[in-house]
């Protein structure tokens, strides 16, 4: 029953700082995440990415693991400060070589590399110059991207510019829970615009030299009004504009949602026509990261969007406190098609953090993750049947990894990682996902 389009790509996703470890190895410069993690008090349990999953040294084993699971694609990110230790200028060839070897290893194993250029780890040297608050950041990013395009585009066919620009600004500039840890309403729309200018500049650079596909990855969380009151409906509009449209509207439609004025107040300034034009570059696909939804009500005290999420009786909440809501994936994909038109989509992340079950005889049972994956893949199938052009699905994540400032306390992996020994153990969900891939989705019809 559950037939997926031919050529549909099944894979998994990770990001550099969350798994690699060895952040300063072989000439790499520090990133803002290295600094953030080494600032006392900012990370849960004083964790850092110094070792993480030691993937920098174990990448061949991890590729072998993916091969064993039948992965067809692997979405990973490149650490900018390994490539350009100072952010711009001097190229660190050893850093380029690491990703070049990873790409070769993937291709030798029949796994398609899907490269994210920016998954939150700006070179610290550039943060010293203002980071995303500096208008030059667009050119810095295009320079970095071009180095990678030249080195890898013959072997990499899928590129994403930014991962979740919303999280970069909301976590990094507005609420400060993520690097660089600012808490400044006035900075947030500036960082937001520069991130999107960087996206546009990288896409333009790609058109000069690249021969394949480039796109943008965003996190989408559909917002549903808690009631039909005018206040809740307006709150839902603000939340939608703030989280789901703030980045996609400029990139896809060449405008900004008007509700952002209401969210940012006097911190908002209109974009110039030149900036809007520079950001709206034709792209080849959109990557959608989907985890949860929000039932939204008006909350005048909640700075600055003035909304709150209403907890749902009877719903299942994961370890990160996010509601499991598979229908939200269908609604998201249909909404994207309606608002932004027909563009190839990839689910570039979807997954769940669960408390760790003990390893028993080398097995780790995670029935709730199997159920999460199954329900979301059925939802995805439903959206495809309704005519949405989805080309692939990447589970978040291959490995239990550093969940940013939450340290290693939240386990998203389909593969367990022992923090002391680095031993990898398949969870039941990894075996399950492997069967889904091998059957091209048909195993979704089997009882679990
Ligand atoms: C992704 O972001 C990241 O790309 C990845 O690095 C990370 O490890 C992974 O997800 C897991 O967190 O608290 O109810 O308001 C996730 C984006 C945005 C999803 C905020 C959850 C908050 C829901 N997240 N959202 S709630």
From TrEMBL:
Catalyzed chemical reaction(s): Hydrolysis of terminal, non-reducing beta-D-glucosyl residues with release of beta-D-glucose
Catalytic residues? 349
Which keywords are on file for this protein? Carbohydrate metabolism, Cellulose degradation, Glycosidase, Hydrolase, Polysaccharide degradation
Q: Which PROSITE patterns match?
A: GLYCOSYL_HYDROL_F1_1 (PS00572), GLYCOSYL_HYDROL_F1_2 (PS00653)
Q: Does the keyword Lipoprotein apply?
A: no
InterPro entries, alphabetized: GH, GH_1_N_CS, Glyco_hydro_1, Glyco_hydro_1_AS, Glyco_hydro_1_beta-glucosidase
- Entry protein name: Beta-glucosidase
